[in-house]
Amino acid sequence: DRDTDKKRIEELLEENMVLEIAQKQSMNESAHLGWELEQLSKSTDLADTRKSFVFELNECASSRILKLEKDNQSLQNTIQELRDASLTSRESSLKFVELQKENQQLSKKIEKLQNQIEKEKQSNQDLETLSEELIKDKEQLQVVMETLKADKDRQIKDLKQENDHL
Predict the structure, then answer these.
(1) Taking the model in full, what pTM does it have?
(2) Exposed/middle/buried for 8, CB within 10 Å: 0-12, 13-18, 19+?
(3) What 3-state DSSP class applies to 46?
(4) Could you tell me the pLDDT band of residue 89, with boundaries at 50, 70 and 90?
(5) Do 135 and 50 touch, CB atoms closer than 8 A?
(6) Distances (CA, A) of 21 to 18, 67, 76, 110
């Protein structure tokens, strides 16, 4: 039983490490996306409206990322506590069962956090797409306005000529 418990604890520790690595990769990807979004906003010379919009997006994403990082740190601390507890509780199968349950709960929390990160990434992509569409619409409206202004100027000129002729 002890050997079996010992093997199971080692398996759980390995599983926890894999989950931690996956979580760190997700956090890195999220931070990288935030950085890319910031770089995009710096590299393009668009209207002030877009800059403030992107800035607000970055702030929102940053605050969510910070919250997720805090949750991640809390989970990592709990995982470390569980590792420490598992080393001292190898003799007790009851404690091992409790650790298994806690490990499962932590795994579920990690999965939820990863899902949240994916949703945030999708939300950021959706907002970026919306921002690009709004910029295109603005540019089209500017072209229409310029066309209307040119038509108006031409009509005024024609009317003045007609007035002079009359």
Answers:
(1) 0.35
(2) middle
(3) coil
(4) low
(5) yes
(6) 5, 18, 11, 11
53 in Cβ contact with 8 (< 8 Å): no
**65 CB neighbour count, 10 Å cutoff:** 19
Q: State how far the Cα of 1 lies from the Cα of 132, in Å rounded to an integer.
A: 61
> Which residue shows structure tokens 């024609």?
158
pLDDT single digits (tens) 104-148: 998 899 999 999 999 999 999 999 999 999 999 999 999 999 999
Percent of the residues in the chain that have a pLDDT greater than 90, as a whole number: 52
Q: Please state the length of the chain.
A: 166
User: What is the C-alpha to C-alpha distance for residues 55 and 123, in angstroms, rounded to an integer?
Assistant: 15
**pLDDT of 99:** 86
The amino acid present at 95, given as its one-letter code, is K
